Amino acid sequence: MNSKILIKTAASSLKLAFLCMISALLISQLYLAIEPVIKQRKTETLILLYRQVLPNSAWFENKTAGNREFIAGFDKQHVQRGKIVKLNVRDYNGDIEILFGVDQENRILGIKILNADFRINLEDDSSKSDFFKKFIGLKFHDLKLEKNGKDISIIPGADVSSKAYIKALKKAVEEVESINATEQ
Amino acid sequence: MLQNSNLNAFLSRIWRANPVVVLMVGLCPVLAITTTAYNSIGLGAAVSFVLICSGLTISLIRKFVPNEIKIPASMVIIAFYTTFVDYFIQAYFIELSAYLGIFIPLIMANCLLLNSSEIFYSVKNSTTHSFLDAAGFSIGFSIVILLIGSLREILGSGAFMGQQLFQEPVNVMVLPAGGFLLIGILLGILNWFRSRFSEKNDK
Predict the structure, then answer these.
(1) Global pTM exceeds 0.90
(2) Which run of H or E residues covers position A30?
(3) Using CA atoms, how far apart are residues B91 and A123, in angstroms rounded to an integer?
(4) Probe site for chain A from B69, B153, B157, B180 (most A CB atoms < 10 A)
């Protein structure tokens, strides 16, 4: 009796293992076929985002300054027109990934929040764009990254996330200044 | 030619046994994702694909898979199709992939699919029956989430399919609380309609 149950269990297990193997094999083949497309799409999207934060550049190159990584933007004549820093900021609310583009005179050309864990909040996209528009065209020394500074107002209805964005911006400015110092 | 039982199974999933508003399964992604009509179409299409393909596969292999391992076997099949959809969306709809995020892999753990796999495993059901059942489930699910997504986008963002319709929307509607509120109102209306309908039939 016991041996019958044992054989039945073994047969069932083997069938399940076979099904898992077939599925794994098919998924691995699918992955091999589709992975280059996924990579290509991610690269294209990233370049699109780079162009949004550094609109004066035609092409981009990953560079390092000391131990810091950044993306240098070049025009068609291969002249460097600015740089983009990409960094993660940990806040009590989650992670924020920010793209921060500045030209060679440290004028802010674009800011993009790539992802925020607290995506679902009361703000809408237009207020977020308005919030970031305030910084475009400003040089570092013009920035007032304080709650009551004259260049910043909190996004209506999204006090928590705008504080997090300011924190991310401060870190991005520090990062660019460090890269500039290393380059000099 | 469709048999009556097959047709009944198909139609009942759309109306009498709708997965969202009657069976109340798979509500987590419904609340989290249906903030816009575009997201709802994306989620509806992804769930429908996984549901129909896994339903067909399960009904085709059920004779070879013993009853003892039907749950793990169903999960392997559902996981396979979910992974397929995840890769496909990442490759060809990267924006949708960013919006749907974790809810694409989580299709695998969706109660709707786990609930359906039981039906697909039923020996008395033919492959045609399983297919129609899955198609009915998919259409019923997609219609409801598209309705919720459209209403939440219009009320919560003042837009439809990305086109701005009016200013100063009711922002709470894009929050999960707004989703709960809308599903509650929808359920209330449907239950009222159903009770009126059955009263008329009784008379």
Answers:
(1) no
(2) helix A2-53
(3) 29
(4) B69
For residue B203, what are the contacts with CB-CB under 8 A and spacing of at least 6?
none
- Using CA atoms, how far apart are residues B48 and B110, in angstroms rounded to an integer? 12
Rounded to an integer, what distance in angstroms lies between the CA atom of residue A28 and that of residue B87? 11
* A14 has a chain B CB within 8 A of its CB: no
**Cβ(A96)–Cβ(A109) below 8 Å:** no
Q: pLDDT tens digit string along A15-47?
A: 999 999 999 999 999 999 999 999 998 888 888
How far apart (Å, rounded) are the C-alpha atoms in residues B170 and B160?
14
Residue B102 per-residue DSSP state:
G
Q: Give the minimum alpha-carbon distance from B174 to chain A in angstroms, rounded to a whole number.
A: 8
User: How much is the CA Rg of chain B, to the nearest whole Å?
Assistant: 18
* Residue A53 and residue B106 in contact, taking contact as beta carbons nearer than 8 Å: no
Q: What is the pLDDT of residue A122?
A: 36
Residue A21 contacts B, CB cutoff 8 Å: no
Q: Give the distance from residue B14's alpha carbon to the nearest chain A alpha carbon, in angstroms.
A: 30
Tokens of A29: 């083949």
DSSP string covering B105-168, please?
Answer: GGGGG-HHHHHHHHHHH-TTS-HHHHHHHHHHHHHHHHHHHHHHHHHHHHHHHSEETTEE--SS
| Residues in contact with B57: Cβ distance below 8 Å, sequence separation at least 6, in sequence order | B77, B81
- Write down the mean pLDDT value for chain A: 78
B84 half-sphere exposure, CB direction, 13 A CA radius:
20
| Closest to B54 measured CA to CA, from B85, B30, B28 | B85
Domain ranges within chain A, ordered by starting residue? 54-183
Please give the residue that has the higher pLDDT: either A95 or B89. Answer: B89
Q: Which of B62, B46, B125, B126 is nearest to A19 (CA)?
A: B62
Residues B41, B34: Cα–Cα separation, whole Å: 9
* Whole-angstrom distance, CA of residue A56 vs CA of residue A83: 11
Q: What is the dihedral of CA A161, A163, A164, A165, to 10 degrees?
A: 90
